[in-house]
Design goal:
This protein is an alpha/beta fold and about 600 residues long. The protein is built from 13 helices and 25 strands. Helix 7 (about 420-440) runs antiparallel to helix 13. The longest helix is centred in the middle third of the chain and has 37 residues, at about 225-260. It is globular and about 80 Å long. It starts with a helix and ends with a helix. About 35% of the residues are buried. Bound molecules: adenosine-5'-triphosphate. The site of adenosine-5'-triphosphate (ATP) has 22 residues, from strand 17, strand 18 and strand 19.
Amino acid sequence: EVEEEVKRALVQFMEKLSVGNAARDPNWGWNRSSDPCSGKWVGVTCDSRQKSVRKIVLDGFNLSGILDTTSVCKTQSLVVLSLEENNIAGTVSQEISNCKQLTHLYVGRNKLSGNLPDSLSKLNNLKRLDISNNNFSSELPDLSRISGLLTFFAENNQLRGGIPEFDFSNLLQFNVSNNNLSGPVPGVNGRLGADSFSGNPGLCGKPLPNACPPTPPPIKESKGSSTNQVFLFSGYILLGLFILLLVVLKLVSKNKQKEEKTDVIKKEVALDINSNKRSSISSVHRAGDNRSEYSITSVDSGAASSSLVVLTSSKVNKLKFEDLLRAPAELLGRGKHGSLYRVVLDDGLMLAVKRLRDWSISSEDFKNRMQKIDHVKHPNVLPPLAYYCSKQEKLLVYEYQPNGSLFNLLHGSENGQSFDWGSRLRVAACVAKALALIHEELREDGIAHGNLKSNNILFNNNMEPCISEYGLIVTENHDQSFLAQTSSLKINDISNQMCSTIKADVYGFGVILLELLTGKLVQNNGFNLATWVHSVVREEWTVEVFDEVLIAEAASEERMLKLLQVALRCINQSPNERPSMNQVAVMINNIKEEEERSISSEAR
Ligand SMILES: Nc1ncnc2c1ncn2[C@@H]1O[C@H](COP(=O)(O)OP(=O)(O)OP(=O)(O)O)[C@@H](O)[C@H]1O
């Protein structure tokens, strides 16, 4: 039975919600004399033990009272609260954050009003949020911390203020049209159309037709929102300083010419970057050498500890730090370890600049690591083009890949519809080979990928998959054995740690195979892909796991099963049982060749 206190709160919630409604039929429930679970209250779903309420779904019941958030969130086990299409008034109060487990909150098509509470941002399990078609009139809460949010509907309210930065990389649907929002639309990376933002006279910028007026350089900004803008605006400041620099330089060089002939020119200019700290930028340029280095050094410390270093890729050997800062930057997303910006250079070359955060690595180690990472050359590996490293800031520059990620292809608007079996097998084979190479090349340096997931597999101009963001901060994936193991490892046990990072990559690759085979998200509403596949296979309903799209195209069940076997070996709970990426690459290549043979024999 449900706890008495929770039951009492639910009865109160309903009393307020249905005030003014005619008496309900006798099967309505929602009274103190029956239990929400065993008493079958209308709209209530409980867990299998009938002990806790999991869902309340009361859509279209003509409820016309007010929403008592405090009472309903006494039910902390609540996962779904859906009250759409009623006439409910009142506000959503701060106490909504007590509903910690909520994954779905639907209150659209009601008469709710007032402020949206900041505490909404604490619902970090939230996947779907619908507050559309109400009278909410506050600013949008900052939901960027909810990285798993898939849909957000807030259209047809009176919301005002700017749009906070959302994590658009996972968002499948987003709508804030017909409100009073203003300011620039944050970078949506072509994932959303104008419809998502229309009907807000004060909004501007892509994908809306009206461009934003030129932005003035920042005056003193409040701390929270300033860091990203500093990155954008420091470009303008720098441009001014750069012109100044040229003038100064001309004067200085005139004097110096007489003294000595040197092929090294050193320039120094003070600039104000990041939180008003005085820093200086110096550039060293060697005649006849196409490598350029730019250093930002703190005036306070005076230590020459940081620089923008262009790596061996020929594409940007003339890239200058100024070019990077001057160019407009658009936020593409915020991952666990930093933000990603798209920067368009004057010559049209598009770069993706990753601004790393919270990585406690010394500048020396960081530089060494970048040099090593630069050695990996493979058509299916995306190397960084340049990096920048100072005490406060670490940037990595990649070429922008316009064709999106494997995650987008599988779970984006098309849901993998046009991603056929042959292509999926090819992607699996290419990625396996490239990952095997990364392991081979970097094993001795103690570097593995560290964060392998479908978001980090990008498609280049030729729609070839490329492994990106390797060798950075090691991220925990859902490989529990890895977590358990690393936490018990001694810190100095480097080779062991290395081994488990490599095995964690194999696990990550196994999960990518599962995504390719099932078309399902890795995590969704408490759903875990690996656990689900295991349970389906255990029940011997194996064919049920495959993506409907693959079944519909009559892909070879035999070969899908073979690939599934490889995936299951990769996600083996015990890391030592997992194959090496070399072995995986061979197994997948065999499956691919088998597929190609069968296609050519069918064609005959
Ligand atoms: N070079 C690139 N070109 C185009 N898109 C990119 C590039 N690098 C990453 N992306 C895409 O931009 C989005 C944001 O990238 P970001 O690296 O910030 O997120 P993430 O990979 O999910 O996070 P993290 O790696 O920090 O865990 C992702 O959807 C990713 O697929």
